Amino acid sequence: MASPSNDSSAVFLVTVAANVVPLVGVFHLGWSAQTFAVVYAIELVVAVPFAGLKALFARPPPNYDELERPREDDPLKSDEWGGTSVGPSDLNRRRGSVTIVDPLPPIYPRNVPFALQAFGAAVGLVGVFLFVLGRFVDVPATLADPSVAASVVFLVISHVGVVEREYFRKRRHETSTPRDVVASATTEAGLATVVLMFAIVGGPTGALVAFVAVKMFAEWRGYRGGVAFDPDEGVGTLPPVAAPDVLPTAEVRPDRRAVRAAALWRGATSAVSGGPAYLFAWVGLTAGSAGVVAATVVCFGLLPAGLGGLKAVEYALTHGTLAYQRRDDAVVAYDDLTDTVQWATPVDDLRDAELCEGELADRACDTRTFSLIPSAGEYELSVAHLREYGRAVEAFELPVETTAFGPLDRRVAGVAAAVGACGIAVVAGLAYYAPSIAAVAAGFGGPFGVVALRSAWQWALPAA
Fold first, then answer.
1. What digits encode the pLDDT tens for the residues 230-251?
2. Of 376, 48, 362, 80, which is closest to residue 187 (Cα–Cα)?
3. Is 401 within a domain?
């Protein structure tokens, strides 16, 4: 372990002093513990999405051994509606990068799932902190205070400065993995949540002490070891792709309408699944001076729209920018966004190819998704949302038995749709007469409805 330098020692001592001052002011000078507790909570929340933005620029790939394939019996797995998934997202193995602005380093699409994880964690933190602090702090009124609002602006500006100075100028993005960057921020915030649960008996002062203690511990870990909450996660490798360097003799692309439909559907289900976090945030806001309508718009409108939109973008980047080509004797997936070959497999090496029956967007848009299984290779390959699927099967010599979907059990699908529509109508009606009950129903009923709908969809699919 490297010894801390004089510069880092000075920075650490300044940080200690900056965090001790609020405690001295609260205990001896009569300062408001409520205000400082809210500011510290905001600082923890703001740090997490900033970590997600930083993760987009991390050059080293993640450790793929740590990205587990979804369990086949897990009703919440990401590929429950058809298709295949490797780890949290197929994007994790995406090659190439994109330069957005010249002064900044390139963004790596494979890091988008980690950024989405960070934003999801931030939404969860908002819910927990509002729920807990709302018991003894009028959070909306505190945020409306000019001094607190100015502190929030300063926090955002300071984070931008720290990222530019510590992450870009010192080129740490060249050695940090996306998982490392996100884990460092989410671990600190998660620890603060646990400590806060025990310190809540002390009211605003107890919450402030909890936040300061976690902040000091994180700074001490960073001072002693160089990185706070280092998950000791290694760097992964992407094996080279051997693709024939010739012009393609055939090329098919995903249907844009099907990709958009699938992206919106995944975004919607992901947004609904965060219901408990929205409910906690709603309870925290309405416990203070926020109106029911405003709290509902923020918690059950803006937050789900943000998470759902990011999930939709992730899916669109996963499938919407690829072109599937036949080059000599190989099937090649080429990414137009990064101008990079993503994978290539010889036609003779395809051990099996299966039509993905469970893709809802494909059934609605008359497109097809095929799962390719190479003889040599650990992971399945996906050729997704093709309108010219007959041409693809012929050009790529896919060993599929049929390109026709089997019949759905319309009784199961109809019952599921009717029950879902009735549930939405009930929540909408309750929102007018009993907002609190409607919020609870939406918060806990939404995730349950997603699981139930997925199970019903699997029952409705034709038997294998």
1. 444 567 777 788 889 899 999 9
2. 48
3. no
